[in-house]
Amino acid sequence: MTLFDKAPPPGSIRALEMLCYIDGASRGNPGPAAFGAVVRWKGEDAELYGVIGEHTNNVAEYMGFIAAALYAQAKHAR
Fold first, then answer.
1. 9, 53, 61, 74 - which has most CB atoms within 10 Å?
2. Closest by alpha carbon to 49, among 57, 60, 40, 58?
3. What is the pLDDT along the chain (78 residues), one digit of tens a residue?
4. 47-75 burial, b for 16+ CB within 10 Å, e for fewer?
């Protein structure tokens, strides 16, 4: 089973809506941290990710959300 097995099929999301899967993690708390996000927009998927240095797991999770929110803003999604 993959991440998108339970996702709405392409075309079922309204034209200006975006579906985002986000995650962040750190090795240790705090420790080396990174985030990732997969954004489904108009039937296409974008992968967003980054290494953010020494941070807590919570900060890494929020960075995934922030990356997806900035992407949505740039695409004029709601």
1. 61
2. 60
3. 555 566 666 655 555 678 899 999 999 999 999 999 999 888 889 999 999 999 999 999 999 999 999 998 898 876
4. ebeeeeeebebebbbebbeebbeebbeee
Q: Which residue's structure tokens are 């797991």?
A: 57
What confidence score (pLDDT) does residue 10 get? 60
Q: Residue 55 corresponds to which amino acid?
A: H
Tokens at 70, concatenated: 């900035």
Give per-residue burial for 12-41: e unless 16+ CB within 10 Å, then b: ebeeeebbbebebebeeeeeebbbbbbbbb
Structure-token pair, residue 59: 């900060």
